[in-house]
């Protein structure tokens, strides 16, 4: 399953999310929403207005969600 984290610079929840994924040994792609307009449109199309947004297979969520991360690994 591919995991993508859409983040913004200086985002505490984004850092917490990527650290939690790394701690579990889960590979992920990191996309900076401030540098990728198409990614920003996609995230907003999913209905999200905050970072990070994590897309893991069919699942997606916003914010630091250790409960969701624990289900990935």
Architecture overview:
Belongs to the glutaredoxin family. One of its GO terms (molecular function) is oxidoreductase activity. It holds the Pfam family Glutaredoxin. Helix 1 links the parallel strand 1 (3-7) and strand 2 (29-32). This protein has one domain: Glutaredoxin, CATH 3.40.30.10. The longest helix has 12 residues, at 12-23. A four-stranded mixed β-sheet has the order 2-1-3-4, sandwiched between helices. The chain has helices spanning 12-23, 37-45, 66-72, and strands spanning 3-7, 29-32, 53-56, 59-62. With 73 residues, it is an alpha+beta fold.
Give the overall shape, derived from the CA principal axes.
globular
Q: Return the string of H and E elements.
A: EHEHEEH
**Radius of gyration (Å):** 11 Å
User: Which percent range fits the helix content?
Assistant: 25-40%
Low-confidence stretches: none
Supply the CATH architecture.
Answer: 3-Layer(aba) Sandwich
Distance between the termini: 10 Å
Structural class: alpha+beta
Number of E-state strands: 4
The largest beta-sheet arranges its strands as 2-1-3-4
CATH class descriptor:
Alpha Beta
How many structural domains? 1
Number of helices: 3
CATH superfamily: Glutaredoxin
